[in-house]
Amino acid sequence: MGDRFAGKTVFVAGASSGINLAIAHGFGSEGAKVVVLSRSAEKIEAAAQGLRDAGVDAFGIACDVRDYPGLEAAYAQTAERYGKIDVLISGAAGNFLAPAIKMSANAFKTVIDIDLLGTFNVFRASFDHLNKPGASLIAITAGQAVHPMSFQVHACAAKAGVNMVTKCLALEWGPAGVRVNAISPGPIADTEGMARLADPVREKQIKGRLALRDYGQKTDIADAAMYLSSDAAKYVTGTILNVDGGSDLGDASANALAQ
Ligand code: COA
Ligand code: NAP
After folding, report:
1. Ligand 1: distance of its center to the CA of 147 in Å?
2. Ligand 2 atom with the shortest distance to the CA of 16
3. What angle do CA 105, 16, 59 make, to 5 degrees?
């Protein structure tokens, strides 16, 4: 256990599994008190117990990020237990592959509501509970925000919006000493997102297109979140940090021919 975030309170929305749970463990392993939130009471309690088993002072809250009053109650509960929030991660998301022609309006809306409106809700409802100045807010976005992808019209539209929520709030809340950034993960191994979107049969081909030739680890995203929330990033706001093995750069498979 380290102590880089000792005395800090970190709140992670969408943290019953995957990348966001790894972020919670990262901050917890550096001494932070951690609150994790997701829809499923059973899953979030298991996640919180896993944190406590790892020696982290943590608790879980069952709440849907589409439920604004529920988020207000979650922040009030956090204030009562741990005081003001120093670091807030908004990472709840839903995704599935679906051609637009087979996607109902409600399917499109569902992903917009979880990813985009959910991020606005998580950030907007937190404002009175942030430890200002100095608070660090981080949205978890994706490459879909800037690269159009087939069967991903809902996620592309939602994550493009998440990038703009990040930048607009960075502008509005910077004068209060609140920094707002986003992390754009590339393909991260052993995650629900990859299970839903990537064909394991094509793994070698997908890795061969990446400049760094491999999938990332969940801890790579946790490390980036801790960097953005540290003093080393105290002059960084409104940025979308790609932690993606070069995915954003495009297809790097041709490089292999020249080497
Ligand atoms: N293809 C097409 N449409 C789909 C779909 C799929 N694979 N999965 C769900 N939908 C549609 C549903 O049919 C419904 O539309 P309809 O009312 O017109 O029939 C709409 O999406 C909402 O589905 P519902 O199951 O009620 O939504 P939910 O809020 O309970 O769950 C999801 C949200 C659909 C995103 C669900 O997959 C989820 O909970 N995901 C979280 C985990 C995840 O996606 N992790 C990866 C993060 S990158
Ligand atoms: P994951 O394990 O499915 O994580 C999603 C989390 O969000 C779960 O804990 C889920 O818990 C929660 N959640 C979903 N809908 C919610 C809602 N309405 N309200 C509250 N919580 C909700 O997926 P992941 O692959 O690790 O992805 C995490 C984040 O990284 C997402 O923002 C995703 O877009 C981003 N990302 C992932 C990759 C990748 O390679 N995996 C790449 C780029 C970006 P419950 O089911 O308990 O609610």
Report:
1. 22
2. 9
3. 130
Mention every residue, 6+ apart, whose C-beta is less than 8 A from residue 210.
186, 187, 245, 246, 247, 252
Question: Does residue 94 have its Cβ closer than 6 Å to ligand 1?
Answer: yes
Report helix, strand or coil for 131: coil
- φ, ψ for residue 199, nearest 5 deg: -80, 115
Identity (one letter) of the amino acid at 48? A
**Structural domains in the chain, sorted by start:** 9-245+250-254 (3.40.50.720)
Evaluate: CB of 98 within 6 angstroms of ligand 1: yes
The candidate with the shortest Cα–Cα distance to 240, out of 138, 153, 144, is: 138
pLDDT in single tens digits along all 259 residues of the chain = 899 999 999 999 999 999 999 999 999 999 999 999 999 999 999 999 999 999 999 999 999 999 999 999 999 999 999 999 999 999 999 999 999 999 999 999 999 999 999 999 999 999 999 999 999 999 999 999 999 999 999 999 999 999 999 999 999 999 999 999 999 999 999 999 999 999 999 999 999 999 999 999 999 999 999 999 999 999 999 999 999 999 999 999 987 666 6
For the sheet with 33-38, list strands across it: 58-62, 33-38, 9-13, 87-90, 136-140, 179-185, 240-243
